[in-house]
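User: Quick one: structure for sequence A, then sequence B.

Assistant: Sequence A:
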Amino acid sequence: MTPKGTRPAGEQFLPPEAKVSPAWVPILLFSLLAAGTILIIVNYLGLIPGGTSNWWLLAGLGLILGGVITATQLH
């Protein structure tokens, strides 16, 4: 056993390798956020065929939630 806080002779500390997200993760993140925001605005303005609907609002919020969840996976 070695004293607390020391390493055996010859053993070096190797820091963990940094994780790097693929390029598509931030693209997906911002695409989902933008699509959700645009869908909510277009619904609010009544530009969607069939008029405004709570389902379009929920779909926009779902896209934004998907963007937030994707943001938690970004390294």
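Sequence B:
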Amino acid sequence: MQDILINCSPRETRVAVLVDGILEDLHIERAASRGLVGNVYMGRVLRVLPGMQSAFVDIGLERTAFLHILDIEGARGESGDYKPIEKLLIDGQRLLVQVAKDPIGTKGARLTTTISLAGRKLVYLPQDSHVGVSQRIEDEQRREHLREQCMRLRPAQEKGGYIVRTCAEESALDEELLEDMRYLSALWQTIKAAADKSPAPSLLYEDLPLTKRVLRDMVQSDTTHVYVDSRQTFEALSEFAQKFVPSAQDLLQHYRAERPLFEAYGVDDEIEKALGRRVPLKSGGYLVVDQTEAMTTIDVNTGGFVGKRDFSQTVFKTNLEAAQTIARQLRLRNLGGIIIIDFIDMTSDEHRAAVLSELRRAASTDRTKLTISEFTELGLVEMTRKRTRESLAHVLCEPCPVCGGRGEIKTTRTVCYEIMREIVRVYRQYRDARSFKVLASQSVIDAFLDEESAALNLLQDFVEKPVSLEVEPVYTQEQYDVVIL
């Protein structure tokens, strides 16, 4: 049973997906930084890079976007080899492109020239005649039926192709597919007409806002309610559902209670936990999640869970629970790229296989493409998860101004010794100075007056100058200044 909660404020929309009352997925969209995936632009090639088989493309964003040869429609020849990018693009060329990945960190948006437009039941491929079915639909008989249904309904004059979406697995009426075909074809004609008369760079098509994408993409056969805490948004979604997603119309409910929607369902607490480094397990074990620019590492620990009899069973149960929790945390935190999982060591091949199977089962409902490897020789599981938008931590947080994102700061003793070395360095440059003054945080000054007082006295004897101390309230523990008097 799935419930969807939509929390709206003037500048931010938050969407939570609960399965049997447990938060399984979270999406946040802000007016100041809406996601770009799916947007279509008329871009201008700034620079072709033959050495990287890539090109930088201006689509009107703060950072230049990036296009690789693998993402260029028609780049592969009949032999299967890719043509050199310098034979396909030139500097200054106008180019119709779509955003495949949002700008992340210091990297610009990732582009493709293969345009795809999403409808309710179908994805339209205007440049490709292929008709396919979502890989998430595993029933081969159902896949073949949907493919034949789509090919039967496709207009004779239509040169484009389609991919049948996962939501069509339960039900896909002829009229629903035809409605998608008509809408998407008209949308493509509108984009082409805009492309012919628009300068480069310019935005030609912007994907739906998060609230409407929820109805289009997230409502499933097991969805029971879609709660919306804004009357204005509720009315807009009701109108949208009536026209495009009739199956979702009866699920929409306006949430009117005084208690905030996310607070009432415990979502705010779960968001706070998802920002933490340590994730507790019900058994008493815990995960430690460390996210870096290169990769994310997840360490599994037994913690207080010691079991009753067999330690190997204790480890096995902890790893099984960890596998379920890891799959959920990947979705909540929107972790992407390379992910390394260090499960607790297991000697039994059967236990390893069961844990890996549980991880794959738990991750099978993830809407984002991922791959999971076998255990390595070191007992690690490597996986990748497609990174299309910023992680939850990058959306809600910024590097700590005190530690610079390291997650730790220098001890007061370390800072004291740095200050004393700095005084010696300054003394050798300015031997005629009468005295020195140290400006530092309260904790560092306290250390100089207490455990490091003897060291400070020895320093004063060495430089033969008095050293005074002054607290600077605005300084962090690592900040200090040595002033010559």
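The chain has four domains: 2-34+209-267, 40-205, 277-396, 412-484. Residues 174-197 form the longest helix (24 residues).

User: Thanks, that's what I needed.
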